[in-house]
Amino acid sequence: MTKDVLASMKSNMDKTIDSLRKEYQKVRTGRASTALLDDIKVIYYDTPTPINQVAAVAVPEPRVITIQPWESKMIPVIEKAILNANIGLTPANDGKLIRLPLPPLTEERRKEIVKQLKKMAEEGRIALRNIRRDAIESLKKLEKDKKISEDDLKRGEKEVQDVTNTYTAKVDEILASKEKEVMEV
Predict the structure, then answer these.
(1) Is 100 left (phi over 0), alpha (psi -120 to 50) or beta?
(2) Cβ(148)–Cβ(4) under 8 Å?
């Protein structure tokens, strides 16, 4: 019984960690990353479509993202979508290719990004604590329904806390890594 609760809890915590990693990929650092464009959609044949499905997106240099649409008529549509997304990048095109140069980050901007990263990490920790709380409530309900003993409950609560500590450490590790990447000049 307690194994089911722990397995479910670990699964939910893995999802939380994955979600945090995905959110961090979208944060602009000094380096170019195609993940910056993941949430931007363009209207393609009356359907909102991700940019990477209407164009080849690449990072040929550390501070440049290139977008080569498969149809040249999409160039102005993609440029407009990027500008409207308000990600702080200005597209430039040569008729065939859109270039997104990433300006170097100022020290002040880097510190703002680190604050944003810390806030995201704290949201991740809160999610982990909520998952822990739900797991402990499930264990207490099992004990109340006489499906597990009081000793099993205590053991289960300790295991739940140990797993939570492990996942919290992962969040801290991911934060430290991303913070280092942002602060690199």
Answers:
(1) beta
(2) no
